[in-house]
Amino acid sequence: MTKARISLTVAVLATGLGLAGCGEGGLPFGAADGGEGADTGAPAAEVSTRLVERDVEAPDVFSLTDQGLWDGRPSLGGVWVADASVTSPERVIIRNAANGKFVIGALFRRERVSPGPRIQVSSEAGAALGMLAGQPAALSVIALRREEVAPVAAAAAAPEAAPAATAPGAITATPLANVTGTAAAAIAAAEAAPTARPAIAPATLTQAYVQIGIFSVEANANRAAGQIRAAGLGATVKNESSHGKTFWRVIAGPAANAADRGALLAKVKSLGYADAYAVSN
Fold first, then answer.
1. pLDDT at res. 30
2. What is the CATH number of the domain that holds 259?
3. Distances (CA, A) of 93 to 65, 152, 167
4. Considering the domain boundaries, does residue 35 fall inside one?
5. Residue 110, domain member (yes or no)
6. Which distant-in-sequence residues (6+ apart) come within 8 Å of 21 by Cβ?
7. What integer pLDDT is reported at residue 268 of this predicted model?
8. Average pLDDT, the chain
9. Residue 211 burial (10 A CB sphere; 0-12, 13-18, 19+)
10. Distance between CA 121 and CA 131 in Å, rounded?
11. Which residue range(s) make up the domain with 227?
């Protein structure tokens, strides 16, 4: 009986040593590392990209170089120019060829064409461009478009440190009952947890806002927004910049549906902003 017990003990010890030698990441019985087929390469770097928007000139959409005139009278709507060839409002960059000044503004259709320079200029645009009242100036008007670019790539995440190797001969025993109990509890918890359903985004109205105007002076933008709010409408002043120039856009809204947007646009135009139009934001 004693001999049988000793034989069983020796067999168990031999099996344990064999498993320790062939365990995950281990080399059996002190074999040399770096053998054929060993993987010594670092994990591939993961790069995340952050997209940003910027304005680019789009002469294929609209481009005009001609004489412009500010007649000296004050005008509403901030920075804008108007030409008879325009089919739809655009955001544009306006340059004065005489002094090199430029400003970001809106482009509208000129309804009434009178003798003289082709491009009609608002009072605020004329001031920003350094124009004198009643004196024509050579202007360049080019449409702007937004494009997404990736200027900066985030640094690759550092690889995690490899776990320390277990010293040879150090064997940690874990009771099988604890392992099976933990696994059973995890499975039960996973089965009991409800499956999350993705949220459905509510439908939104395209071009739910109405643009009042683009202003090169913040005080003028705030004044226009105050007038819109005094009429019981929501108004927002958005500080933006393009080509190194800062400007302020005033928008009203948002509207919940197309009918509300039509009523909002009509109300804004009744306040004197005849060139207001619908925008997405």
1. 43
2. 3.30.70.1070
3. 12, 26, 70
4. no
5. yes
6. 27, 28, 29
7. 93
8. 76
9. buried
10. 10
11. 209-279
